[in-house]
Amino acid sequence: IFSLYWPLALATVALYQPARAWLFTGPFLDKVTGLFLFGVDWRVSSVTYPVSYFGCTVPGLEQAWSLGIELTFYLLAPWLLRSWRAALILMVASFALRGAVAWTGGWHPVWNYTAFPGALVFFLLGHFARVVGDAWSWVRSKRTGLVLTAACFTLSALTPLRALEGAFFWATVFLFAAAIPGLFSATRNVRPLNLLGDLSYPVYLVHGLVIKAFVVFSAGLIALLPKLGGWPITLIYFFTVVAVAVAAHLAVERPMDAAMTSALARFRATRLRSRAVPT
User: Fold this and answer.
1) Sign of CA dihedral 251, 74, 197, 216
2) pTM over 0.90
């Protein structure tokens, strides 16, 4: 996560004036959570509750708040996933929380979206999909994965617009979770799909920056866009985002990941040598 996030955050601060202003004049806690991500989702959810607060994110990288949820789950996973009972209890509790909020007041931007307790159910559904797939071979078969994926897409197409809770939404979510073991079996050795998977994170991080770059540096293009229509605009944006994501992945993420992994390995080796008892 940080091998690409930190270089992009640095570049954003260097090139984007609102990001520089945020870094030099913003509240200290906003800068800490925005740069290190741990806890950023809690600030998004709580500072101006019930309205989501994005002042704790780097301007231009506001969508990175969701990485705080991901990192929190990674911290809990070594303990949580050892016990199927604990994982099941928390998954049911997370699902019940979302249901109670939706039942009493409709979809909520915090409890049904940005808060870790409401998002935990999705991580644990993926965990239990793996557990079931490991236990039953037919669940992880390619045919099962493709059939469940087709059913998921079909139901998703029938789901009412913006139905972010309810029977259609959750049936789609459960179908997709059940399809994961079979999809993994069917695609894990397909290099083009693995490449797309590698690009998903760079695309996630750079797409907002591309929009801002268009606005800041491409006044002529912006003036032309209304005349082009929807499809040309979409294609220009799509291919620009993909090109920037590929460049970020190859030129930044891979080298930084290798450097950070090497530095961590050297640090661990040094600590092990320092703890070794002389013979």
Assistant:
1) negative
2) no
